[in-house]
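Need a sequence for this fold. Nothing fancy.
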């Protein structure tokens, strides 16, 4: 478990410098398995889904893409590795970021670590997969903000709320657009229905901002000052 004080320190830094409150989550979950693989000499990592195939269409599953540090940095981490944070924010130290540092090329080469994605080999449909888990294993879910999808991202109520709102401000579209695109690809809704869903959900307000601000010990004015520039 990463020390909460470190997480808060990094989150405040990425909020100020990137307009992102979620950098630490993506950085952590994409590096921890690689660190463990190098430490215990495990040459093969099975990941679930490659974002570039499932969400943004950068690749096809026919490309059989594998895990790379480059993709992680450019797409998951917005071009900033953990080491880069210290060059931007001098208050961060080596100890603050050590759990987010990707193993170097030599460490990976020594073990021969590779990572493959299951969605290159099996049909990846998160809606159908979650509904199967509900049916077979009594999986429970929760209604989320700013999207009709109540299956993905239930681990964090900020993800579809504040985090998605920041995405909308910076890029002009929300998570709802990603979910609608997926549903159109699977022929479950029409483009017209998709447009209506986007128009409705992308304008929805979000809750829990006060919880996040209290956790980070900043005020609402500070929060909006940080993100206004993005």
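Here you go.
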């Amino acid at each position: 478990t990463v020390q909460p004080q470190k997480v808060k320190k990094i989150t405040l830094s990425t909020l100020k410098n990137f307009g992102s409150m979620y950098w630490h989550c993506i950085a952590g979950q994409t590096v921890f398995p690689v660190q463990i693989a190098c430490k215990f000499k495990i040459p093969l990592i099975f990941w679930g889904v490659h974002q570039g195939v499932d969400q943004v269409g950068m690749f096809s599953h026919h490309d059989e893409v594998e895990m790379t540090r480059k993709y992680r940095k450019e797409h998951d981490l917005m071009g900033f590795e953990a080491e880069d944070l210290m060059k931007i924010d001098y208050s961060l130290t080596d100890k603050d970021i050590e759990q987010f540092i990707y193993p170097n090329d030599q460490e990976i080469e020594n073990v021969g670590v590779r990572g493959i994605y299951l969605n290159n080999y099996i049909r990846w449909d998160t809606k159908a997969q979650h509904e199967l888990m509900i049916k077979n294993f009594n999986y429970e879910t929760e209604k989320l903000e700013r999207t009709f999808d109540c299956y993905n991202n239930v681990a964090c109520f900020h993800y579809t709320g504040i985090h998605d709102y920041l995405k909308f401000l910076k890029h002009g579209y929300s998570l709802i657009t990603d979910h609608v695109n997926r549903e159109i690809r699977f022929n479950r809704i029409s483009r017209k229905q998709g447009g209506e869903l986007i128009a409705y959900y992308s304008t929805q307000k979000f809750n829990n901002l006060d919880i996040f601000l209290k956790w980070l010990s900043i005020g609402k004015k500070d929060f909006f000052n940080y993100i206004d520039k993005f």
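For context: The radius of gyration is 19 Å.
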